[in-house]
């Protein structure tokens, strides 16, 4: 029997007494572990929201160990039935919220540290990405909450980043080696004001949380991003060279930590050519065949569960990529980003 790595956690008895793992067709198994891990109270009818918050505070360390082991946890059938309760749920972990500076997705603040997930039109697919991998400062932990489940589609598929790296290394070794050696840059034209018709339509004002161009320039410089103001008051940006593969120092595993396929497939609109959205540092485009291989790998490894009202998904952003399927409205998924 293969010895478990030291970083893998065991489910303690007091934790197991309050929650159980559910076998589900909406999970996959990697290295003997379900993905994502699904937890639910044994006695849902008698548990209050206050009980849940206390339970999290008492078991925070155990939950964090499980998150490191599994990459993502789906909390299902907990009494989290409003954005305000979701905000309290997240705050019970006592993590510092991360401002959404530099991200591309259109979002709105709902309450506290809770905002909408990407508000791109429902017919558009949002490809896989690590949240904010295109900027130097990214969240460590993500929380998603289902406020209104869609009647059809709208899953938030998840995939383990180290599994993507392993599969791509076997399938497209030279491409992976070049990425590891050179890194990538991301190119984008931000509109003057939010554009709700685009999946990357976040205007430069909300992207950098200011209407002061000098402040925008300061934040770009701070992030190592070069910039150019265009005649129509749009902003062209080019990031510093960023790694496409990272080694997680907690596990020693290499991860596919980037937004390459998201930019290549999804960063296209009237201002942006998606094939130029992510390039090698010298400007060379991503090879089309490698992008096809990457799409296939994601499709084979991803798991997309069906949202239920009140679901909360906790994601280790360093270990797991996520995406969004197209859907039939209405759908309302909310999010919190944490340092």
| General form | globular
Q: According to CATH, what is the topology of the largest domain?
A: Double-stranded beta-helix
Give start-end ranges of low-pLDDT stretches: 1-23
The fraction of residues in strands falls at: 15-25%
Briefly, what CATH class of the largest domain? Alpha Beta
Specify the CATH architecture of the largest domain.
4-Layer Sandwich
Task: Tell me the span between the first and last alpha carbons.
Answer: 36 Å
Strand count, sense and barrel status of the largest sheet are: 8 strands, mixed
Order of helices and strands: HEEEEHEHEEEEEEHHEHHEEEEHEHEEEE
Strand line-up in the sheet with most strands: 1-4-5-18-9-21-7-6
Give the strand tally: 21
Q: Taking Cα atoms only, what radius of gyration do you get, to the nearest Å?
A: 20 Å
| CATH homologous superfamily placement of the largest domain | Clavaminate synthase-like
Q: Compute the average pLDDT.
A: 90
User: Which structural category fits the helices and strands?
Assistant: alpha+beta
Helix content: 25-40%
Please describe the topology of this protein.
Elements (H helix, E strand, L loop, with lengths): L12 H6 E3 L6 E3 L2 E3 L1 E5 L7 H22 L1 E4 L7 H9 L17 E3 L2 E3 L9 E4 L11 E8 L3 E2 L4 E3 H11 L1 H10 L2 E6 L13 H4 L5 H11 L2 E4 L5 E4 L7 E2 L6 E2 L4 H7 L11 E2 L8 H14 L10 E5 L3 E5 L2 E2 L3 E7 L1
Parallel strand pairs: 4-5
Antiparallel strand pairs: 1-4, 2-3, 5-18, 6-7, 7-21, 8-19, 9-18, 9-21, 10-20, 11-19, 12-14, 12-17, 13-14, 15-16
Helix pairs in contact: 4-5, 4-9
């Amino acid at each position: 029997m293969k010895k478990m790595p030291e970083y893998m956690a065991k489910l303690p008895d007091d934790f197991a007494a309050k929650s159980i793992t559910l076998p589900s067709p909406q999970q996959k198994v990697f290295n003997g572990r379900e993905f994502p891990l699904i937890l639910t109270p044994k006695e849902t009818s008698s548990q209050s929201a206050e009980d849940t918050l206390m339970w999290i505070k008492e078991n925070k360390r155990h939950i964090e160990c499980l998150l490191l082991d599994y990459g993502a946890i789906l909390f299902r059938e907990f009494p989290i039935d409003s954005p305000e309760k979701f905000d309290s749920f997240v705050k019970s972990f006592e993590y510092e919220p991360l401002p959404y500076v530099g991200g591309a997705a259109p979002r709105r603040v709902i309450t506290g540290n809770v905002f909408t997930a990407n508000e791109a039109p429902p017919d558009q697919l949002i490809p896989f990405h690590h949240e904010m991998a295109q900027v130097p400062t990214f969240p460590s932990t993500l929380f998603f909450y289902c406020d209104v489940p869609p009647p059809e589609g709208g899953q938030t598929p998840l995939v383990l980043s180290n599994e993507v790296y392993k599969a791509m290394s076997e399938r497209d070794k030279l491409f992976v080696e070049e990425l590891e050696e050179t890194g990538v840059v991301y190119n984008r034209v931000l509109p003057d004001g939010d554009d709700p018709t685009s999946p990357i339509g976040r205007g430069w004002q909300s992207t950098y949380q200011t209407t002061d161009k000098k402040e925008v320039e300061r934040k770009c410089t701070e992030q190592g991003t070069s910039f150019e103001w265009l005649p129509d008051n749009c902003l062209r940006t080019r990031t510093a060279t960023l790694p496409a593969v990272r080694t997680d120092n907690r596990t020693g595993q290499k991860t596919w930590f980037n937004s390459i396929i998201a930019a290549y497939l999804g960063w296209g609109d009237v201002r942006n050519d998606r094939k130029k959205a992510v390039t090698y540092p010298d400007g060379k485009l991503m090879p089309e065949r490698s992008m096809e291989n990457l799409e296939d790998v994601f499709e084979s490894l991803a798991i997309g569960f069906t949202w239920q009202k009140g679901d909360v998904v906790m994601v280790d952003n360093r270990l797991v990529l996520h995406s969004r399927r197209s859907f039939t409205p209405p759908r309302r998924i909310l999010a919190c980003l944490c340092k």
